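Researcher: Here's a chain I'd like modeled. Treat it as a single chain, no partners, no ligands.
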Amino acid sequence: MSILAIGEVVIDWLSENPGESLYTASTFQRSLGGNATNFAIGVSRLGHKVKLIGKIGNDFHGQYLSNILKAENIDTNYLFIDNNYPTAQCYITIDKSGEPAYHNWPKPHAADRLAVSDIEDHLFSNIDIMHATGISLMRDPRKAAIEKAIDLCLAKNIVVSFDACFPTHAEELAKQSVENILYKAHILKFNYHELLFWSQGSKTDSIAQLTSSLFAKYKPIAIIITLSSEGSYVMNSQNAIMCKPYSIESNYPVGAGDAFMAGLMHGLKNTLPEISTNSLMQLDIKYWQKACLTGNITGALVTRDKSAYTSFPSLNELTHLIN
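Model: Modeled as a single isolated chain. Structure tokens:
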């Protein structure tokens, strides 16, 4: 399977002091981060070809990221360098309830400067799936670049996978940009908070009710809801089913959604000899469930360490756990 990941390429600074804020935490661990890079490494470790489209600064942080990605067998020929803006950084703190808070700096940064002119037709040759996230649609020029990439995929009948994660307090224009893609993508992923936001439902509504309303509105091939320690839920046009969680002691919750999507893609490929919109439309719900169970495992495993990318499982480890 050949996958294209597009979007954020970021340095993460992970607080080593859970319960402290950005203003009180004093010790941070540097790590590779960003939705696109996390996802790319996840699927690469599971044996798939991955091309990454993103932008870094011409600085030592950018070189650090580039070195890691190359070592992980990611095709970085389209990891562009911006000479005018620094590599993106994200400071991550964990509150007393265990929830992460993300503080991006500086603004603007190189990751935001991915441009329409960077998105060329030949980048999409021999690609089965392209994966993008809502966070990449917060501002131009990257927003326009992601939109162009998705439209090119649709024109070429490439499967589009979309993680709806984005700051729900963002301005209305950013929300509209994300929703435009929700109408276009073939595979949609939401966590519970995003499910409530986009469905405009309430916590008294069932997961099935909330997901059904989104499915009727956006009409994808499949919608997946990640539910943390409760597993996940998947719905296609024929049916819907819960997918049991994989239990593990969680130490740091960052990157679990990206890892889930990497495992999901691997699970789909294990079921289908060819990934296409047609084959996914015909796929029985029990195989979607099996793919989500794989995603539950990979999503759980990355929480064993602070750095998500160091915790992504290898193909051998995942195969052992599945079997």
